Amino acid sequence: MKKLLKMITLVILVVLIYFAYNLYRLYRLAPNGAKAYSTYSFPNSKYYLENKIDSLVQFDKKIFRNQLDDNPTAKFYNTGRYFTINIDSVDFIFRYKGDSLDWVNSKDSIKIFLTSINSFKKRKLSNEEKLKIVEEQFINRLRE
């Protein structure tokens, strides 16, 4: 009986550690967190950048957004503060810097942070390869 109790305690401890680790990762990528894979600045308003992103997604067949009903991650992250794009089976989740008040008052500059990268490819890509994909096929095109 003592052995079983020790085993249950160990399992609970492992689950709690796993939960705490995932909570830490979530906090690290939270809207007010400082962690990001990369930061990109644009000399435009958020409204202009959103329209440019929508246009790029609409006319480039390599870049798309997952249907919100089919992808709970995309549904969570497409809220006005976040947006998700998919390029070559890799989801890139970005966050706009600031809040709605900052976006209204800052009409000539906006920053976006790449906060999360989720790859659905069979072949694992390094973070450097993923950043190269998003910068060449998306970020640089936004700057054109």
UniProtKB/TrEMBL annotation:
Keyword Membrane recorded: yes
Keywords: Membrane, Transmembrane, Transmembrane helix
Transmembrane domains' residue ranges: 7-24
Name this protein carries in UniProt: Uncharacterized protein
Protein species of origin: Flavobacterium gawalongense
